[in-house]
């Protein structure tokens, strides 16, 4: 039998979802981040997405590395297991949890330092395995928790608070994961919840590795004048290329072309759909090389292309490729795992 | 052939053959055929492979010891050398004991070079015969190896029926292969019978000392143990000499863990991008509730250090096999050593102490790998199984493995959904019964079980803390858990000899040589007691054992006496009592080294 | 204000102030201003920062100890609490000694809450005054901190001239800033003078005990040491509490290592992608002939383990600073501990033993970092400088640093092009003079110097080997090199007291507390001798010292007695002689803990 | 003064270069690799390139990780210092050596396992730093030294010797490094020395990170029928897009359009030039996104695009970005490094 979270008595004005849970049931403990930190907005978007998707919180696992960003899993889904691992190694923990129990909804939260410096290898290989998880990079161009050194996502010419100018070219998670054959490549901005929430929903429902790189300003160390990761810079150069609406399995499609071009439906494995609305008419989010070209071109102009930039629902996920049994390995009875004494005797005939 | 001095003393079922080959020429299967032939004749046998860290073209050696008395340790004496590699003729010849034999391929005669007059040279034109008989370069090379087995069969009186039986089993229904192999056997056999007086004084006679036994390597046995323990997730990055452990697990799973109807796999093996990822995957899986493991060797443990400390502090079950090779650094990847004892005991920064099991042979590899999973879940911590290249990659004669079908995995204190449903709250790190072990909950089971796992400071409720008292409370409980662990790891094995004033303590693959040395001392009326350490943290009885002897020789295979240091530091025993006997050259331990070292010390003792 | 019991006993230049703040509110500079004011008045002072692993909004504390007698260890006694954080009012109040004082911001009065009747409450409306005086949120918050320094100045009789001087120095020519800070000082000062009898019985008087001294933190001093040692390559990955070491090196290099004409830098700092890369960069640079270093903390060392073993075996100079924080795992990154002693001594798989220096204060951080580079090149091996958060990040009072301009870096046995030109061949790992150290050659210098550096088995010529004897020969020489190292590392410092039967051995930042404890024991007529370990491998004289005492208390800051274990294992001394005195809560050591622990053991001794 | 290698008396038939050295002087010890291993051909190409470039061998450093490929630096340039480091960490050693002594010519040799699995993070960050070195991946799709497991460059559907089929999508070093902003991205085939040797020369002379991914069949574990890394597969699907001729500073350009389109000269920092001849007329090796698109498109057809696929001589190398002094730091006199006792006293005035 499975147990579910008992709904708290909802206050009159609180909306509940079909599980009888309110949005507050999807929250976590109080944030200890700096007031105004972009990461807190992402936390709020995650809460909203899970609440609206009506996922039972305890069927989720929240995994992170180390950094201000990696602290945030404590601030959402109180009744989900959390795993604050070591710096840069969240992907391997997530891989293990997913290997053991494929039913768990796996959300990984990381920072640009955590994923693009120390964790680059694990990050790239999680993409390659296409393991089924939502992977969020809370990208602020600096190491927040160690007080503001440049990270590998810092743009050339971006200035640190103390005046130093970054000289090295950035590692862009979008270009990088396109090159690695990722199946769901998205970018957003912590200040744009309307864009972010549906992306999170789609990422959760995508069967495979769903990356959302969220520009998330660090108010303490990287929100000043000459930073390219500040609120003001992002407000100016945040360039949505494709908007994605998420539609739950039962819902009917609100087919509206929107202001920018026609809507393209993408069917997800569980029956839900994403409606893609192209903000940029020349953009094709199913063409890997074209996506690369578009992002790169705009990057050279200092623009940060956002949206669901690439999606490929055909790629098989880790367990599908491996041919693992459909139910969680953690629930497999021991009798189905042990070949037993007779088989052991048989096996040993070959060892004589 | 003229028999040389001492060569005519008949030695039945008691000699050492060493074979020199070029690697990548398929000699391994021929050598294993030879070893198995002795085994099937009922004679205890040992076979050790000394191969290079290379794929093709370099010298490689194989040592076969036949011992009716059951001594299966490495032995520096070589009675018969099969010298198949011209590059090493000279050094090979030098190793033969006076009165011994050297067989070589005299297609290209080298009588001048083999100039020792105290050994007997046996030339067999292996290449010539095989070139005449077989076609194809590869086949000719392979068959040369089989042919020398035939030659040895004639020289040593190996039962050809046994060899035939083996070939049948090995090649199953591939009749053509069986035929050509038999042909090669007969080439060698026939030539030798024709040209040399057979058998040699050195020879075998059928016996009955191998029934109820198997020949198996430790990695195969350990992989099999993982299957029987119910492990479902294996993560690894290839590294010699641990690679075959995962090959074994994979192979057995493919045969015994695939759903017959659906073809679905009841296991998940992840070839990780490196060792840091491999241990991460194991911790993630263990945390989620699967039995998970990773096999590696020294460099892998170094890379895993950070995560191992996490596993200790956040208390996550994990099983880590360290199949030791020669360190430090890349060292000699194809030689054996016990150089990782200290590292595994205390791996990672800060105060840590890990559970380590020390199998001494493939049989224990099997049982200890099952025990390791039980202990990892019972103690909620990473558990090391510290094997080595010698155990892991060489075939050892072992009693047949047994399985008790009533075995149930010990999952330790895992809360079920039902239990959690009854609880008002759940505190992950609260020890209610004083054994230092707290209840844990698995993800996906019940909302009440949710908690936030972290490697940063936490209190007994599982909350983040930077408070000194709360932190220290958790650390003190972890120390208590170590004490519990000492009572749960495999107990030391003690062998007592009446009248013993001194004793030996040893560990792992030293066991065979130590037991042989004990017998030698006993024959010389110097009784010694013997304790073999099998688990860490150490149980207090080891200290008692040490204190009960005047001198304790700590026999181990590393330069720095790592086990000895550990005994002193952990048990508070007097260092002067403990005398190191060390072999760290990369070769397996031989009884003679132990005997000489102990003789030396005891002589000093008398003199002083 | 009514003075409470014992509060009227006058205490001059001998008390502890603790300040509670919210982090990210700029309190650090105010607290440092306070500390420096005492220092400039000539009174020995200690200041320790207990901050959270967080950027903004959590509780943080600062401890200032004023001690005319020069005791600068942490002290659990708090005479005056400046409680600026409402979240922690309750616990803060509880810490004040009976008869002590608590100053708080009574803009929002809390008389009810501060209900202890044995302490004196001093309310100052800091927020109110600052809000009225300054504009801008940030300025108001910052000035509140400066204002309580003004209040303290009045209460404790701190010379306002000194504070003015400090502000002038800090803000250099920024007159507006100086003015506003002075205004804030006067706000606090004026209010207190007006409302409370000043000064308190607790107060300062000018002294002359700080001349010739500076206030500096260990990371700054160590970074400066790297500059003076001639280090040119620094590689690092940020980690608390080591980050400021590289900041220091960078800062000093920017001021003193940039070519005035060309602007070219005579140093190269690489912010690596992680610690594995950082140590790789250091080894690559050391191999190429630069003096190179990396600062890190425990988790970094764990990650560097594989490469550290490489450095040991391939014999490459490297300097690694481990500024220890609380482990295991992520632990408490902003608390102090000595938990990496064992790891650093033996880091990496296989038989290894590393050179470790243990500075006890910032002064030694400076000198030992110079020594570390000399030793690394002399011994051709990685050298650890094992500092900790307390030394590294807190300002300590130290004698001024001195530099001898005749200093020449000891490059060790590096062959010049001229020497190589004369040589027929070069064998990298041949020890010609028996000290275990071989000559090395640098790339790019001379063709004869070329050799192939590897972590795999090599012989004394530097060629690849899998030969047992050749491998063992190199390992034995490395062991010999360790013996040489023991004679070269900083010798232990010994303090003797006549009539001492027992002794203390300690290490690193424990020093201040231990010396204070020694004085306390001496006053009680219990003379103790004291040896402070400053380098590993241990020199034999430490064993002699231990054997010369009945009981030796090993005082260190970790749970498992890592130094004690090391002493036993390495020196063969009798474990029962060595009694652990441990502080592992994350707080710096206090003399009282040492005194109590030793009292306990000695009392037992008497009873037994 | 600098010392040079004394030429051996050259045999009559041996060609010598301007240093008086023969090709044999650029060789190393005897290879212990399997007969026919692709890596040995790359070794030969390196020998030829250095001989013809007339680089004094002892001014070169040869750095590698662990693997069959990583053993090869022992087989060339006997009189150069070699550094066989640990698995996957060659880039950091090279970075350190280059940081210390920028005059050294740095050649890194690695394998696909060494660079794309365990070493991916270091590899990517060396690209990002654009440190001045030639980086060769000897790519065979397997871990040769540990006996044939698939590496991260194995193609989907490629079969292992024991029959297992690779399911995971490959990490392609070309696409990857294009995404990372690499300045010199080339691919070749160990069996095509005519293509490989000039690429090696150009890579040595390129100031910055020059990557050459050389398809190098493993005859023992990955040269069978269904492998996509075999000699026969490569002979069939090796698709040269741009040929590069290397021209030493003094030489005059042999301007010949060749069969396929016109020749484009690229000026290198030391005055030498590369003449690019496009085999594919639609290919532009200076357009990053176009290169990505071209490689990716052909990859989908199973074709392995080779040649100097992308070059950007404008990017500054590590030392240029850092502003380090031009001469090797290892040669800096101590007097220029120590600020001296007077300065120390001055510095300490701020610590009172
Ligand atoms: C092995 C290791 N090295 C270094 C650190 C120190 N550290 C903690 S967080 C961090 C960087 C965090 O940056 P990012 O991932 O971008 O997160 P942010 O704080 O910016 O959200 C570093 C270097 C660590 N905890 N562990
Ligand atoms: C830390 C570590 N893990 C694993 C190994 C074992 N190992 C040696 S070489 C190798 C793979 C080599 O593959 P690749 O780089 O492709 O080289 P190739 O042999 O194919 O040329 C592995 C896994 C090791 N030496 N060190
Ligand atoms: S330091 Fe930056 S990233 Fe960290 S919590 Fe503060 S604003 Fe957020
Ligand atoms: S195993 Fe493969 S890669 Fe290694 S030497 Fe042989 S052919 Fe080359
Ligand atoms: Mg960041
Ligand atoms: Mg390979």
What does this molecule look like?
The complex is a heterotetramer, with 2 copies of chain A (352 residues) and 2 copies of chain B (608 residues). Chain A is an alpha/beta fold and 352 residues long. Helix content of chain A is 28%, strand content 20%. In chain A, the strands form 2 sheets. In chain A, strands 2-1-3-4-8-7-12-9-11-10 form a 10-stranded mixed sheet, with helices on both faces. In chain A, helix 1 packs across helix 7, helix 3 packs parallel to helix 5 and helix 6 packs antiparallel against helix 9 (288-300). Chain A is globular, with a radius of gyration of 21 Å. Chain A starts with 37 loop residues before the first helix and ends with a helix. A 7-stranded mixed sheet of chain B has the order 11-10-12-13-15-14-21, sandwiched between helices. In chain B, helix 18 (562-571) links the parallel strand 22 and strand 23 (578-582). In chain B, helix 1 packs across helix 5 and helix 9 (275-288) runs parallel beside helix 10 (298-314). The radius of gyration of chain B is 27 Å and the shape is globular. The model of chain B has no long low-confidence stretch (mean pLDDT 96). Bound molecules: thiamine diphosphate (TPP) (2 copies), iron/sulfur cluster (2 copies) and magnesium ion (2 copies).
């Amino acid at each position: 039998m499975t147990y579910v979270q008992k709904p708290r008595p909802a206050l009159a004005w609180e909306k509940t979802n079909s599980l009888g849970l309110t949005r507050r049931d999807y929250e976590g403990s109080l944030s200890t981040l700096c007031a105004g930190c972009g990461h807190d907005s992402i936390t709020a978007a995650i809460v909203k997405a899970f609440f609206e998707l009506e996922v039972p919180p305890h069927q989720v696992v929240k995994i992170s590395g180390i950094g201000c960003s990696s602290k945030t899993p404590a601030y959402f889904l109180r009744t989900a297991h959390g795993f604050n691992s070591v710096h840069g190694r969240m992907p391997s923990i997530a891989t293990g949890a997913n290997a053991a129990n494929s039913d768990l909804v796996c959300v990984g939260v990381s920072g640009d330092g955590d994923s693009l410096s120390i964790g680059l290898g694990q990050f790239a290989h999680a993409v390659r395995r296409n393991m089924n998880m939502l992977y969020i990079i809370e990208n602020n161009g600096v190491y927040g928790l160690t007080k503001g050194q440049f990270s590998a996502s810092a743009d050339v010419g971006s200035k640190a608070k103390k005046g130093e100018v970054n000289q090295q070219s950035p590692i862009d998670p979008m270009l990088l994961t396109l090159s690695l054959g990722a199946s769901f490549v998205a970018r957003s901005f912590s200040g744009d919840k309307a864009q972010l929430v549906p992306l999170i929903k789609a990422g959760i429902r995508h069967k495979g590795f769903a990356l959302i790189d969220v520009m998330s300003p660090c108010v303490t160390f990287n929100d000043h004048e000459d930073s390219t990761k500040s609120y003001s810079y992002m407000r100016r150069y945040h360039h949505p290329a494709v908007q994605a609406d998420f539609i739950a399995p039962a819902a009917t499609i609100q087919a509206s072309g929107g202001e920018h071009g026609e809507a393209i439906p993408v069917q997800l494995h569980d029956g839900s759909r994403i409606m893609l609305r192209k903000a940029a008419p020349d953009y094709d989010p199913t063409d890997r090389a074209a996506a690369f070209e578009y992002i790169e071109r705009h990057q050279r102009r200092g623009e940060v292309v956002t949206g669901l930039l690439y999606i490929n629902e055909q790629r098989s996920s880790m367990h599908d490729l491996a041919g693992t049994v459909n139910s969680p390995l953690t629930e497999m009875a021991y009798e189905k795992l042990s070949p037993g004494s007779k088989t052991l005797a048989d096996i040993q005939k070959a060892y004589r | 052939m003229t028999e040389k001095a001492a060569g005519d003393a008949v030695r039945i079922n008691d000699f050492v053959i060493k074979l020199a080959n070029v690697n990548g020429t398929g000699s391994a299967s021929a050598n294993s055929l030879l070893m198995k032939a002795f085994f099937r004749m009922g004679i205890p046998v040992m076979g050790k492979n000394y191969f290079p860290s290379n794929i093709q073209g370099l010298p490689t050696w194989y040592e076969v010891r036949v011992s009716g008395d059951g001594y299966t340790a490495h032995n520096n004496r070589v009675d018969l050398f099969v010298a198949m590699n011209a590059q090493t003729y000279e050094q090979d010849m030098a190793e033969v004991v006076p009165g011994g034999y050297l067989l070589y391929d005299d297609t290209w005669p080298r009588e001048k070079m083999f100039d020792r007059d105290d050994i007997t040279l046996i030339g067999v034109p292996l290449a010539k015969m095989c070139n005449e008989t077989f076609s194809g370069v590869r086949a000719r090379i392979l068959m040369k190896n089989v042919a020398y087995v035939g030659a040895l069969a004639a020289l040593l009186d190996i039962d050809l029926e046994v060899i035939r039986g083996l070939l049948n089993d090995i090649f199953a229904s591939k009749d053509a292969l069986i035929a050509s192999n038999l042909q090669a056997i007969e080439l060698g056999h026939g030539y030798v019978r024709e040209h040399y007086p057979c058998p040699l004084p050195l020879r075998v006679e059928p016996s009955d000392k191998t029934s109820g036994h198997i020949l198996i390597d430790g990695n195969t046995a350990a992989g099999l143990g993982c299957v029987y323990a119910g492990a479902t997730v294996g993560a690894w990055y290839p590294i010699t000499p641990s690679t075959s452990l995962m090959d074994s697990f994979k192979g057995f799973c493919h045969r015994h863990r695939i759903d017959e109807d659906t073809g679905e796999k009841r296991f998940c093996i992840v070839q990780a991008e490196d060792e840091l990822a491999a241990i991460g995957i194991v911790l993630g899986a263990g945390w989620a509730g699967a039995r998970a493991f990773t096999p590696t060797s020294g460099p892998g443990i170094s890379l895993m250090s950070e995560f191992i400390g996490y596993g200790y502090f956040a208390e996550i079950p994990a099983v880590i096999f360290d199949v030791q090779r020669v360190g430090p650094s890349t060292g000699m990847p194809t030689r054996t050593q016990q150089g990782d004892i200290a590292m595994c005991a205390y791996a990672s920064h800060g105060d840590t102490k890990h559970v380590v099991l020390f199998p001494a042979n493939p049989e224990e590899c099997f049982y200890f790998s099952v025990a390791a999973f039980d202990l990892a879940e019972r103690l909620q911590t990473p558990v090391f199984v510290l094997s080595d290249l010698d155990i892991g990659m060489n075939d050892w004669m072992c009693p047949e493995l047994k399985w008790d079908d009533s075995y149930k995995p010990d999952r330790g204190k895992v809360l079920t959904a039902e239990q959690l449903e009854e609880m008002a709250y759940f505190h992950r790190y609260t020890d209610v019964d004083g054994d230092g072990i707290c209840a844990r909950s698995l993800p996906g089971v019940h909302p009440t079980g949710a908690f936030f796992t972290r490697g940063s400071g936490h209190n007994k409720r599982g909350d983040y803390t930077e408070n000194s008292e709360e932190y220290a409370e958790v650390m003190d409980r972890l120390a208590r858990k170590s004490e519990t662990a000492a009572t749960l790891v495999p107990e030391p094995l003690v062998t007592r000899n009446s009248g013993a004033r001194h004793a030996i303590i040893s560990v792992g693959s030293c066991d065979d040589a130590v037991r042989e040395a004990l017998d030698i001392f006993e024959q010389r009326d110097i009784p010694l007691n013997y304790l073999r350490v099998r688990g860490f943290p150490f149980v207090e009885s080891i200290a008692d054992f040490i204190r009960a002897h005047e001198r304790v020789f700590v026999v181990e295979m590393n330069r720095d006496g790592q086990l000895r240091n550990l005994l002193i530091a952990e048990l508070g025993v007097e260092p002067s009592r403990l005398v190191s006997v060390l072999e760290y050259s990369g070769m397996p331990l031989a009884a003679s080294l132990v005997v000489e070292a102990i003789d030396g010390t005891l002589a000093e003792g008398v003199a002083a």
